[in-house]
Amino acid sequence: MNMVEEAVKLIRESESIVVLTGAGASTESGIPDFRSNVGPPKKKKYDYPVEVLLSHTFFINNTEIFYDYYMNNMVYRDAKPNDCHKALAEMEKYCNVLAVITQNIDGLHQDAGSSDVIELHGSTRRNYCMKCGKAFSLDELFAMSRPVPKCDECGGIIKPDVVLYEEPLNEKDLTRAMKLTVKADAMLVIGTSLVVYPAAGLLNYYRGDKLIIINMDPTPFDYRARLVIHDSAGKVMRQIVDGLKP
């Protein structure tokens, strides 16, 4: 029995599954992992590391430069769900998926049809005025004059509803993700290096013995996993879901 067949067997034996996804779940949709060597090209005009460019302090003090980087490197309006997203949505037909917990901000799990997605780091598709709270879609944000989009109601600066460095995760979302992880019989981790906290810390709440990690590179939690598959997320998830079909 190969590892994909073993994964299918473990999932079939599970009463409930929670899924955690990271950047590797979306790279096949053309969205690069900005933390890896295959991330967005390093542009000379940005004299700051990514962790600074995407920090709350930088957003407040250098809003124009923040938006220039953010809109050109973090937003992918034309991206479509790949086999990983589609397979996870389809998997709901064959087993009890409690939720897809994602570190991604692209909204592709929802596009693919996953019914319950917890976005730990927010979403590029949601934006709000910091002054009056008015909500704006991503298309509305793009239609605004640059370099800094401002509210058409009060003139306040609009902020993407994404969690920047120095900002806490949404407490309600994180708590719910923790509770579902504790409850899950099996945990499927896809396309994440498991080095970014508190998201990676969710694995410390998993109480089961069916941890499956699918990632191109090793992670700090591989030693705890029942199965570790080093391959592309889309390929493996398509094979797993095909194996789950009656």
From TrEMBL:
Q: Where is the active site?
A: 121 (proton acceptor)
Cofactor requirements of the protein: Zn(2+)
Kindly state one GO CC term assigned in the UniProt record: cytoplasm
What EC number(s) are associated with this protein in UniProt?
2.3.1.286
Which compartment or compartments is the protein found in?
Answer: Cytoplasm
Q: Which residues bind nicotinamide?
A: 34, 105-106
Q: Is this entry keyworded Transmembrane helix?
A: yes
- Record-annotated membrane-spanning stretches: 186-206
Instruction: List, for all copies, the residue spans of the domain called Deacetylase sirtuin-type.
Output: 1-246
The Gene Ontology terms for molecular function here are: histone deacetylase activity, NAD-dependent; hydrolase activity; NAD+ binding; zinc ion binding
UniProt-listed InterPro entries: DHS-like_NAD/FAD-binding_dom, NAD-dep_sirtuin_deacylases, Sirtuin, Sirtuin_cat_small_dom_sf, Sirtuin_class_U, Ssirtuin_cat_dom
Q: How is the cofactor bound?
A: Binds 1 zinc ion per subunit.
Q: Which reaction does it catalyse?
A: N(6)-acetyl-L-lysyl-[protein] + NAD(+) + H2O = 2''-O-acetyl-ADP-D-ribose + nicotinamide + L-lysyl-[protein]
Please indicate if the UniProt record lists Transmembrane helix as a keyword. yes
**Where, by residue number, does Zn(2+) bind?**
129, 132, 151, 154
Indicate which residues the UniProt annotation says bind NAD(+): 23, 27, 34-35, 103, 105-106, 121, 192-193, 215, 233
Q: Highest taxon of the source?
A: Bacteria
| Family stated for the protein in its record | Belongs to the sirtuin family. Class U subfamily.
Its annotated function is as follows:
NAD-dependent protein deacetylase which modulates the activities of several enzymes which are inactive in their acetylated form.
What is the name of this protein? NAD-dependent protein deacetylase
User: Which gene underlies this protein?
Assistant: cobB
